[in-house]
Amino acid sequence: MKKETILLGHGSGGRMSQELIRDMFMKHFGGEVLTAETDAALLDLPPGMTVFTTDSYVVSPLFFPGGDIGHLAVCGTVNDLSVSGGRPLALSASFILEEGLSLEELERVVSSMADTAREAGVAIVTGDTKVVEHGSCDKLFINTAGIGVLDPRYRGISHARDVQAGDRIIVNGFLGDHGVAVLAARQHLDISGEIVSDAAPLNKMIGRVLEEKVPVRFMRDPTRGGLATLLCDLAERTSLGIDLPESALPVRPEVKNICEVFGFDPLYLANEGKVVMVVPAEEADRTVALLRQDPRGRKACIIGTITHDHPGKVVMETEIGGRRIVDMLAGEQLPRIC
Amino acid sequence: MKKETILLGHGSGGRMSQELIRDMFMKHFGGEVLTAETDAALLDLPPGMTVFTTDSYVVSPLFFPGGDIGHLAVCGTVNDLSVSGGRPLALSASFILEEGLSLEELERVVSSMADTAREAGVAIVTGDTKVVEHGSCDKLFINTAGIGVLDPRYRGISHARDVQAGDRIIVNGFLGDHGVAVLAARQHLDISGEIVSDAAPLNKMIGRVLEEKVPVRFMRDPTRGGLATLLCDLAERTSLGIDLPESALPVRPEVKNICEVFGFDPLYLANEGKVVMVVPAEEADRTVALLRQDPRGRKACIIGTITHDHPGKVVMETEIGGRRIVDMLAGEQLPRIC
Predict the structure, then answer these.
(1) Domains in chain A: ranges and CATH
(2) Nearest residue of chain B to residue A51 (CA atoms)
(3) What's the complex ipTM?
(4) Shortest CB distance from B45 goes to which of A44, A50, A54?
(5) A135 at the B interface (CB within 8 A)?
(6) pTM for the whole thing?
(7) N or C, which end of chain A is more exposed by having fewer CB within 10 Å?
(8) A184 and chain B: CB distance < 8 Å anywhere?
(9) Which of A22, A43, A84, A94 has the highest number of chain B CBs within 10 A, making it the mutation to test binding with B?
(10) What is the DSSP string of A26-70?
């Protein structure tokens, strides 16, 4: 079916929908649970509280250095479950397709989702496909919802209230790679060899830290809005301050350069393979060491401290010795980043 | 915020996203579980196997006689869980918004979702919002995923293999109302007073039948592709035949008329408040009586029989005494119906 394209009939619920399900979705996602014979998946979840989340993905372009919309749609939802304190188990996958989308492009995306789900150890167990007329959507949007169970090694669902003054803030590597990779693909910049999206499922890396009984106080992934928005939100919710020495922020020189050219701030760029962990000060070095044992955490480092000073505010000590109040993203820096 | 519209910044993940979540989604969906403070919902599900499903909704126009995209997005997923044998408990709601969509329209949809969820007794517990540039989607798409537990009063997940020759096929009322209501709204036909969408959550009506220990063999909702597609699929999967007397099919005269004008067949029109139940012959009358006790089932009736004759085929005895082989929907009759 390589040269064919999506037709309205593929979304009819009739014969063509059945063929698409069989030749595309069952082919790549089919497993123990996913079957074309029932409209819902039946799951035998392990005991424990259930964690449930969802995200829609509208990234443009569909393919970018280091990933594609399908890879992103699996990573994003796996990571939302993981940073919330869940162990991801099963995903749904729902597609909105534009009439005229090539089946070859769709299959690349679907195959990438299947690969990423395998890597993360989750199953894609149920799904849906809608088709809209040419011009009514931009090629392909994906929604994934995810189910997991609360990881018994974690303290419950990740919540800002558990954060304390003195805690250290850790991130597992370079900031802004995803944002710059998508920007480069969109603008046809020739940097594809240098910077690739960090999009990756983080559940195994996070599991490694929890397995070693690090008493993680808080986790979240700095996706849309970037690190700055995540930390501003955390400072506001805890009524504690955050100190962020600029010299400690891991940003690639190439990312800094691109940001200067486009007037972006890497603090606000989206990441899709990063987790911010807040841990007690005395656990910080051990946490960094554990993260560095994972390929997704080789460049993990401590980037800041929770403080009683300047409550509700994130203050960056700049490299030239000044102080900058970091605010939440206002407006939009780079739309359709995920 | 009535006169304002959606801006790209509402999808940034930053300050404007937070305001939209607070002033729109938390306002209408906020409850015990949904909170802006965590990225995933934590659910304490009752014991039993978990049922999980998803659908994206792209219906055009957004508002139609008897419903809107939000009402549909809740009904559709509640019903998918219910007809699969699940008791619906929690939904996710994910929005793809076009830049320029009026906040007033969005709020009508969101408020309608909240009302429908309340009616069905399910909670909207987690969500997401993305914004795309003007022209990159058609106003508003919604995805809902749903979680339930297997209803202990049912035999497991609804599956064609449980159907037997001699079983009766029941539907809870008139066919094609949803399809015609959406068609009328799209074509600006002046029939809005006569035919309204049947979109409705069916979990309580189905629960009533299960509560009375009717040994239902199979359930499914005849949405996209209509009754014909559902029954063809059932005949193929069971390798049994289906007899469908045309005289028994409940179709409003107004729907028949519109179908004649537009060249549609009501057998293929979408329904969003109907369930097809297959039950043992000796249980058929009791099932109809139970369905009729519910406002959603007042016009319930037996529409056909499972047979060993013509295996894999649906045969309609027409009102003029002929026989017509009913096939699955080929191509597309009416796109963007849900």
Answers:
(1) 8-154 (3.30.1330.10), 168-326 (3.90.650.10)
(2) B42
(3) 0.96
(4) A50
(5) yes
(6) 0.96
(7) N
(8) no
(9) A94
(10) IHHH-SSS--TT-SSEEE-PPSS-EEEEEEEE--SSSEETTEEHH
